[in-house]
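Input (structure):
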């Protein structure tokens, strides 16, 4: 078990990619602090499944876009688990539309959740990691942040911003033995992409591996980036996209 005894804080852990990461980490022996926005039942179910895998797990409600709530949540996790070793900034939203019609509120909401949310948790975990001279930070970006995507200017800007944040934090913290990397998923089967027709999907033609990815396939990379096998990797952005953005 590559993460035995570690504590992982994962935002947006109630469903989709965050849920898959939480359960994959638990399988590797990590204790789970599952951060959720509104669906307490889903987050509790993830925790129950993690506990059945033999680890400790607890759900915390927190809107990641709030600096103060993120601070309180990190403090609560630190108190309950006695430390934090791994931070996964996974919570994210879309508010798609052409720039021509995009409302300022939709631009702000996406930046506040996807980019500032990650900043908040990095900021509040920073002293914990620095004190231990250890830590793994994983930010869930997107191929939209690498390629841009018409109709997703807000989302792509937030995900490109996450890459700049990742590389800057990696440079700041490398001297303390702390690694910060980003994962850029392509089209993954979750609620976020539920509207995309999987049987007759024109996007599949653009994906060299000719299918959408599964949350578990993103989670496997997160396990690697959270463990000691990736200790010499920092500031990296790794795609899990079936070759879409190569
Ligand atoms: P999802 O919608 O199933 O999950 C997103 C999670 O984030 C949910 O649990 C939601 O409650 C949580 N969340 C949203 N706003 C929040 C807030 N303010 N505070 C706390 N939690 C909040 O989607 P997913 O596909 O599992 O997405 C996970 C991450 O992966 C996101 O950052 C997304 O942008 C990214 N991503 C997904 C895909 C994809 O194809 N599904 C592709 C690239 C990147």
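Output (sequence):
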């Amino acid at each position: 078990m590559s993460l035995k005894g570690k504590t992982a804080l994962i935002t947006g852990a109630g469903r989709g990619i965050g849920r898959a990461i939480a359960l994959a980490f638990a399988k590797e022996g990590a204790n789970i602090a599952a951060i959720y926005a509104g669906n307490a039942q889903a987050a509790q179910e993830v925790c129950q499944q993690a506990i059945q895998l033999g680890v400790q797990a607890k759900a915390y409600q927190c809107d990641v876009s709030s600096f103060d709530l993120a601070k309180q949540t990190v403090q609560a996790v630190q108190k309950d688990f006695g430390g934090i070793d791994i931070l996964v900034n996974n919570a994210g939203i879309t508010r798609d539309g052409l720039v021509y019609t995009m409302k300022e509120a939709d631009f702000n909401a996406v930046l506040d959740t996807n980019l500032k949310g990650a900043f908040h948790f990095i900021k509040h975990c920073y002293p914990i990691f620095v004190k231990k001279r250890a830590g793994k930070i994983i930010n869930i970006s997107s191929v939209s942040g690498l390629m841009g995507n018409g109709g997703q200017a807000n989302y792509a800007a937030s995900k490109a911003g996450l890459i700049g944040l990742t590389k800057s934090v990696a440079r700041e913290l490398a001297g303390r033995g702390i690694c910060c990397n980003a994962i850029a998923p392509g089209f993954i089967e979750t609620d976020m992409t539920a509207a995309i027709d999987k049987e007759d999907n024109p996007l599949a033609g653009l994906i060299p591996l000719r299918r959408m990815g599964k949350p578990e396939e993103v989670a496997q990379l997160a396990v690697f980036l959270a463990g000691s096998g990736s200790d010499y990797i920092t500031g990296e952005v790794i795609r899990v996209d079936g070759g879409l953005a190569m």
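Notes: Residues 135 and 153 are 32 Å apart (CA to CA). Residues 11-12, 14-18, 36-37, 63-65, 90-93, 113, 140, 142, 185, 187-188, 190-193 surround nicotinamide-adenine-dinucleotide (CB under 6 Å).
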